[in-house]
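User: Sequence in, structure out. Go.
Assistant: Echoing your sequence, followed by the structure tokens.
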Amino acid sequence: MNTHTGWRQQMIAWARSIKRDVVALWIAARDRRVPWYAKLAAGCVAAYALSPIDLIPDFIPVLGYLDDIILVPLGIMLTVRLIPAALMAEFRAAAEARQGRPGSRIGAAVIIVIWLAAAALLIWIFLVRGTRTV
């Protein structure tokens, strides 16, 4: 096996572990044994990762994929540290047993609200504030 194939296999395994951990965090956010702060973090990370709408749209060159490549894995790593290891192992096993990918309408709604707030802020800055004379 050449090094290119080995690198490709590592990337595929890494992507699968990210997908598994997102589903595991989605499960953890609903489990009563998880501390509230870890539930909150797990819910936010899973909702964002499962949302069909990104904070930075993918069509924006380079920046569009930064959230998928950097923000989501960092959020997963930080949140996994908040969940007890034994519980996280259980959630990962449950995630592997599940077929498909859960959807997050709440996550999509949160991203839409952020985009609308950003648009409203820009409109306010350029139209309302821009017309004032100093």
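User: And one key feature?
Assistant: The CA atoms of residues 24 and 91 lie 5 Å apart.
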